[in-house]
Amino acid sequence: MPDTRNITLTVNGEPMAAQVETRVHLADFLRQDARLTGTHLGCEHGVCGSCTVIVDGEAVRSCLMLAVQADGKSVTTIEGLADEDGMHPVQRAFQDNHGLQCGFCTPGMVMTLTAYLGENGEPDDRDIREAISGNMCRCTGYQGIVAAGLQAAEELRGGI
Amino acid sequence: MNRYVGAEVLRSEDPRLLTGHGRYIDDIVLPDMVHAVFVRAEYAHARVTAIDAAEARTLPGVHAVLTLAELGEPYAEKLMVQPYPSPAFAQDIRSYPLAKDEVCYVGEPIAVVVADTRHIAEDAADLVEVHYEELPAIVDCRQALEADAPTAHLDTPDNLAGSLAVGFGDVEEAFENAPHVFAEEFLQHRGGAHSMECRGVIARDQPHDEGLTIYSSTQAPYLVRATVARYLEDDESRVRVIAPDVGGGFGPKAGVYPEEIVIPLAARILKRPVKWVEDRREHFIATNQQGDQLWSLEVAAEDDGTIRGVRGHVISDTGAYTSYGLVLAITSLFPLPGPYAIAALDVKLDVVFTNTPTKSPVRGAGRPDAAYAMERMIERVARELELDPAELRARNFVPSDQFPYQPGHKTAQGSPVTYDSGDFHGCLDKVKEIADYDNFKSRQAAARLDGRYLGIGVSAYIEDTGMGPYEGATVRVQPSGKVQIQAGTASQGQGHATVFAQVVADQLGVGIDDVVYQSADTAMFPLGVGTVASRTVVAASTAIFNAADEVRQKAVALAADLLEAAEADLELADGTVFVKGSPTASVGLGELARQLTPFNTQAVPEGFTPGLEATSYNVTKGPPTASGSHIAELEVDIDTGAVTLLKYSVAHDCGRMLNPQLVEGQVLGGVVHGLGNALYERMYYDEVGQPQSTNYGEYFLPLAAEMPPIEIVHLETLSPLNPLGVKGAGEGGTIPAANAVIAAIENALAPFGIVVNDYPVDPQRICELLDQASVPSPAGDPG
Amino acid sequence: MKPAPFTYHDPTTVSELVSLLGSLEDARLLAGGQSLMAMLNLRLAQPEHLVDLNTVAGMDGIEASATGLRVGSMVRQATLLKNAGPNTGIPVVGEALRWVGHFQTRTRGTIGGSLSHLDPAAELPAVSLLHDAELTVEGPQGVRRVPMREWPRGYMTPNVGEHEVLTSIEFRYWDEPHGYAFEEFARRHGDFALVAVGALLAVSDGVITRAAVAIAGATPTPARLDEAEKALVGQAARPDTFRSAANIVRQREAMSDAYTDARYRQRLAGVLTERVLMKAASRAAETEEDR
Asked: Which B residues, 219 through 258, put their C-beta within 8 Å of a C-beta on chain A?
């Protein structure tokens, strides 16, 4: 018999209750149980960053957390960033600066930068590069992503 | 007229992808779907003497464990199809879809487990016991042709897969009378694709209904359809292949893999949809990749550095199978001699088998290997004759007034290699300017006074882009006025939907938001080839342009009738056709479409065929030749061997840029991949062929914090070979990057006479070279 | 790559945890998960039982005293970083933490996890050695205090029994003013160190009065460089002193693997030692000026 637990958590502001097998990681839970497939699996060993989500306000690699460990927590995924008024400044900045091509690493990049900019509102080029040094992109060469991070930072500071 | 083409139009793909609404292979859930996991070979070369799946089959939730025998007749005796036949084969060795009785690389699929969930399938896969009899393995391609080398496959005479040669001119003469002849030998190693999304296949078989539907994270849906249909002996009309959103391809997703045969067969046998998604470890060991190439070349030069000729030999590893033909070898050879006008060339290449994963092109596709080889010889001449490397290149470049230029050899298809247009000198001048090349020596000297070692490296290339044979598209105006493009292309993030919409929007005078692009589905458009080798924009834009042009002409002709105006007086804008100077005398494109698609009680307008649409195929002329020059500036720490990239400059010529921002993105991504090849990416195997570096803690991809600022300047020498004047842009960033870096390291360490040659190069290797050059070592050398 | 099945346990108190550990065979402790979850996903670890330390109250406190800083083993690396800045008693820990992984991993990764995993290249064990940390281990047999020097028993093998758990770490402050430095050589930002060296140096009137130097990545376990320390104390805080100490460090045996050979590790050990001593000395001079 599989080992399961009942959990309750908030996902993108919505309460959720589920029974999960304890060995299922948070990324798989979000993708399959919550049907939010925007969070991607690129390596499943915690290096590529594609699975990054925000848990209780902090950026986390969701492939390195068990779903049961999200019990009682608040999770934000890429699907939860935009609101009725449109895309989040980070998302918009990515489009403006051609910060994505295939889009696979993108949710992880966006969530990483959203969390990072919440803690450091005045980054420079170097800061952004270090902030995304735990996220791999094979398409863009990063420069558009860095430009997106800087633009988003400026907008979030009220500069745009 | 050109409102969109040439402008920086934001991508229409982005909002969906940015808000988590992409639909990649693992996002697709079909009713009744089950999950597959492959049991893979644990030895690089072994006989498989037994496969015991009894315990695995009893695990709750397991639906089947299939080996080759269980795939049924005739597949149990049927080798995978060769997609790229060639007369140059000595031995064309392909695998069965699942191993028969021999495995030839770690990772080769042996059995497939199908279960309710991926988790259970993995549990069951762990229970499958495979009995092996280990065999000698050949791992290093440099030894593969030695007399006593183990053969990668049993019962084969040797490890030779094929031999190729490229050449022109009188090489004997070039060398005999040359004042200078230099020989170089170097080992190139490029790694894997490492698209952030791995491969994946979903198959659904509905024999009483639509037949077989295959979703695959592929660059080549039509090749997959043709190959799978042929293999399964199904009619192509009953096989549909769809590439959903694909998270990067870079070459290896253009092959046809055993999984693309086995998963459909499993779906057919189990009578329910089956999904397999590759995990990252599998990507390391079971997806095609590049590997080693050993180049041994000689260059003959005049006193002033003019190259008289190049000759030599290459050993190119194809890994365990030739399942991608000899394509990698061909693309590594035929781009010689690059942007240089030389009198004679004679290079032979042997493709050899090893017990490692199959080798096939990765971003740049052999062209980086050819470019590097030529650039190495240029560096050697510059070093020996004490000439400035940029100046030496300029001296040997094809002059700008000699296009179209034919170096002298023929393509593998037999036509003369031709560079259609270019300005190699212009690129070099521009890149030198943005790199501040002329002031480098003083920067370097000042740094040396501080005990710091700066270096600069130049690299130039050509790229045959837009290769054939063809692509096609339909452009159709809907009664709503929206325009639909359907094409046989497939995107992995290049922005096709946006770029092609730009072309059509300009042609038909509609807003870009009113154009929708559909592709990568064999049921949606009949014929296509695939996205590789920087070909799609070139090959498809002409088809799309021509189809849109036909639609435009038809719209104008019908509007002329309806408005009782002369065609020459009509214009298209804002989704309407109107009389110049009388905007109220107009008819909407949607209205025209409606008139051309009547129903029962109406008639097709006299003299017209139904539909405001056209289909056009472009049989490519070409290939258009893209080109450029790169300059890398870096610092080497001689205590630790660390290389810090300081600035990277690119002059890039891809003909007309349809969307400059997208072109930049392609170049930037390509450059970073090339920097990764130069400094980081190596697959390690032990002496019996066990892959060592199968995770991202041990195999290093380039990351943001180590990348320098990259500045790009564009030239546009239009291609005369297509109406838009475009050339491919997908891989030019990668092609020359390795030499720019390696030469810059050598330039930094020139005081010590260090030559690097082999890549990737890591800090440890640089320290070894410093030790060998007896450079005094920091902090007390143990001796 | 999915974990093999296990039975999950989520004790809520330390005593519940301890009694659970006493009763389970083949159990692994899940702290930050940044190492263990990857191993579980790759099926490199397949324990019968997984005991979640994140649900246990009371293991994530931070308490300063006159003599040191006591840190619960489940304190997140990100939290520790905030408590180890230049104006605290353990700035070398803060400097080392900037090299530990990436900011996403530091939100989950814990000091206890790092010390218990004991990767040869890990930074936190090395700086714990610098501060002569005292580790508290609890198990069914009771509470043990383990000096950090006695913590590494061998390659990735800490001095903790099968049924025991590390509950807190106390960094011992240096009473005397001192300089500090930590430097690492890695292929890319955030990667595992090839070699890392940290140092604390107290300097009085230009003479080194106390020295602690620790190294990670060169050998299967992190180490205090006693021989180098002896060669520093009593000497002038000058480049040639640091060069001699670096020479000693360079002679130490180092390990080889498929990617990096011993000779190169030795070279890095020497280079980093020299750099770190120079930096620590210059910071020590600054604190002397400030007085």
From this structure: 245-248, 250
